[in-house]
Amino acid sequence: MAGIVELQELLQSMTPEIQRGEYVFCTVEGNYTDYVHLNPLGCFVESEGLTLILPVEAAEKAQLPYESTFKQITLTVHSSLDAVGLTAAVAAKLASYDISANVVAAYYHDHVFVHSERANEALLALQEFGAV
Questions:
Q1: Torsions phi, psi of 64, nearest 5?
Q2: CA 29, CA 21: separation in Å to the nearest integer?
Q3: Average pLDDT for consecutive 10-residue bins of the chain (132 residues)?
Q4: CATH number at residue 74
Q5: What's the short name of a Pfam family annotated to this entry (predicted)?
């Protein structure tokens, strides 16, 4: 099933949802296989190290340092990886409320990580797209 490409359709049909749990971004040395037991939600290899998105409990149990906790908001619309402008529109909307957006695009959905204490405010801001 192909994802939606048209930006206005994406914005108007998405129903953002806050997922359970809190997450942290950690940077570690080594390979993904060294950390698979922590059940990362996501990872990315950078020249400076391996970035892991972990449940806060897993990071604390492994004694990995982190700076902030985040809630995951899933945009719940099947966006195409070829869609243009969704990340920019979401980031701009949240920026207008002075909320940072850490966006991860997966195959079916885009996921926005926002500081935990701003998650409800971020959700309300993103819901404004459907009110247009």
A1: -95, 135
A2: 25
A3: 80 92 96 94 95 97 97 90 88 96 91 98 94 60
A4: 3.30.2130.10
A5: ACT_7
